[in-house]
């Protein structure tokens, strides 16, 4: 479960708010939290709660350079208990060999630190362009990705998915190391898919999630967990009905939608992991 998603779900600002979030995540059947490296003064409490609720932990990084990534990895190692790092590499105007060199440098730092780093497919980053990212996959042997195709669906206005787009997307799915669950309709980055996933775009995302999981299973130790993260952003990332005002009144229910995604993911996993 994404810690970012939990923002604004609970209205209680009391002292137990943080532990209440942990309890809510664990009771819903989630196995871990994807968040951020805790501040030094909060680190002990995070370790205590992760252990108490039996939750794994991964974090997000936003490097602009290899030096940024090295610095972040040092903080991650100091905290410990971090299964992997999801990286949004904030260099959207870097491309070609320069971009490939930066990704390769990040991969080398990851191996040296002993913490996996997965590059997220994300707008406004080094992977913002679908075709560009396919080129990375063709040129960088050890490229591992966090798949979030909502960014490519909205950037490409994919109300329908062409055969050409599907071919490119499937190439990236061979590099799946984790998945972020969010559905775009080709116009908005994050939409409510209905209580049972009735939205027509859900069928495409289910297919991609299945393909990513299958590719991962074919190339990894089956004893390792596969990271599937329900990551629905709070307002103003989420669509609101007060766009002219505070942008806090959401159209959808992020918690219930997260449970829908988790149910779908578990069903797919159970089906392919026989």
CATH architecture name? Alpha-Beta Barrel
Number of helices: 9
Summarize the main sheet.
7 strands, parallel
Distance between the termini: 24 Å
Radius of gyration computed on alpha carbons: 18 Å
CATH superfamily: Divalent-metal-dependent TIM barrel enzymes
Total number of strands? 7
Shape: globular
Fill in the keyword field for this structure.
Xyl_isomerase-like_sf; 9 helices; Xyl_isomerase-like_TIM-brl; isomerase activity; globular; about 270 residues; isomerase
Q: What is shown here, in short?
A:
The chain is an alpha/beta fold and 274 residues long. Helices cover 43% and strands 11% of the residues.
Can you tell me about this structure?
The chain is α/β, with parallel strands linked by helices and 274 residues long. It has nine helices and seven strands. Helix 2 (43-53) links the parallel strand 1 and strand 2. The radius of gyration is 18 Å and the shape is globular. The model has no long low-confidence stretch (mean pLDDT 94).
């Amino acid at each position: 479960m994404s810690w970012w998603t939990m923002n604004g779900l609970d209205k209680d600002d009391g002292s137990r708010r943080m532990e209440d979030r942990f309890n809510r995540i664990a009771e819903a059947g989630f196995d871990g939290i994807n968040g951020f490296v805790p501040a030094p003064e909060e680190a002990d409490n995070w370790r205590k709660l992760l252990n108490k609720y039996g939750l794994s932990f991964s974090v997000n990084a936003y490097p602009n350079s290899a030096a940024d990534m090295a610095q972040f990895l040092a903080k991650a190692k100091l905290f410990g208990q971090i299964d992997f790092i999801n990286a949004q590499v904030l260099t959207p105007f870097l491309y070609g060999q320069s971009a490939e060199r930066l990704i390769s440098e990040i991969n080398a730092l990851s191996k040296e630190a002993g913490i996996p780093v997965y590059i997220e497919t994300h707008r406004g980053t080094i992977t913002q362009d679908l075709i560009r990212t396919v080129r990375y996959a063709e040129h960088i042997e050890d490229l591992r990705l966090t798949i979030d195709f909502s960014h490519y669906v909205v950037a490409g206005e994919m109300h329908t998915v062409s055969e050409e787009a599907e071919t490119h997307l499937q190439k990236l799915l061979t590099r799946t190391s984790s998945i972020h669950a969010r559905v775009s309709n080709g116009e908005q980055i994050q939409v409510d898919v209905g209580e049972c996933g009735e939205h027509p775009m859900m069928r495409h995302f289910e297919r991609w999630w299945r393909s990513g999981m299958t590719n991962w299973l074919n190339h990894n130790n089956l004893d390792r967990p596969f990271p599937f993260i329900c990551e629905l952003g709070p307002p103003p990332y989420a669509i609101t009905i007060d766009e002219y005002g505070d942008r806090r009144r959401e159209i959808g229910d992020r918690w219930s939608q997260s449970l829908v995604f988790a149910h779908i993911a578990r069903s797919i996993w159970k089906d392919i992991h026989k």
